[in-house]
Structure formats: C-alpha cells, structure tokens
Design a protein that fits this description.
It is built from five helices and two strands, in the order E-E-H-H-H-H-H. With 113 residues, the chain is mainly alpha-helical.
C-alpha cells in the first residue's frame, strides 16, 4: 500500500434516516434511500418517500451478519464465506437466498405522471 499511488479503501456503512425531508431541504436518490449495495434494489428506487418508505425499510432489513460475512477479516471468516457461497450456489441455497433476501419491485405501486 505504501508503494502505490492509486490505493483505494472504503468502509461499508448504512445510515437509517428517520425522514428524508425537512422544510425545503430534501434528500433524494441514494443520499436518502440507499438501501445497501447488498440488497440489489438500488436501481429500482426512483420515487417518493410516501410510496417507497415501506419497500426501503424491507431492503434495509438485512441481518447485520451479512455484511460481516461478505467482507471477512480473518482466515476463519474467509472459510465461512466460502462455505456459505458453496451452499448458496446449490439449487436449495438459491431458493433460500431468493426467499430470504429477494425483494419484489413490482409490489411498489408507482403513480403515472
């Protein structure tokens, strides 16, 4: 790291906002409702708080262990990640992941403008 001039480091974090607007100040897009890069629903979020808030809360509901599993900090963690990925790659594992984490973007009734 000391010898390269293009080293990049980032930390995966998530902020849960109690509201996205105050008076005339409004957060929108990922600044307001970035669910988490792990949920896979970021590109489906393009409407207003009243409509999307329940969908966003569901997308943010990943167990706290999930980010930790996906970014291991030890050999044991890497072993656990690889084991989980092997199971997730099986037909049964795919069904479990789909059932436990997939979100139905069609469940959000967006208005026509």
């Amino acid at each position: 790291m000391k010898d390269v001039d293009d080293f990049y480091f980032d930390v995966l974090r998530q902020v849960h906002m109690p509201r996205w607007s105050h008076g005339r100040v409004v957060l929108t897009g990922d600044a307001a409702w970035c669910p988490t890069l792990l949920s896979g629903i970021g590109t489906t979020l393009a409407d207003y708080e009243r409509i999307l808030r329940p969908f966003i809360k569901e997308g943010q509901g990943l167990p706290k262990i999930v980010p930790r599993l996906l970014w291991p900090h030890s050999k044991l963690g890497l072993t656990v990640l690889r084991s989980v990925m092997r199971v997730a790659g099986t037909p049964l594992g795919q069904q479990l992941v789909k059932k436990g984490f997939a979100r139905d973007s069609e469940s959000v009734d967006l208005p026509d403008y």
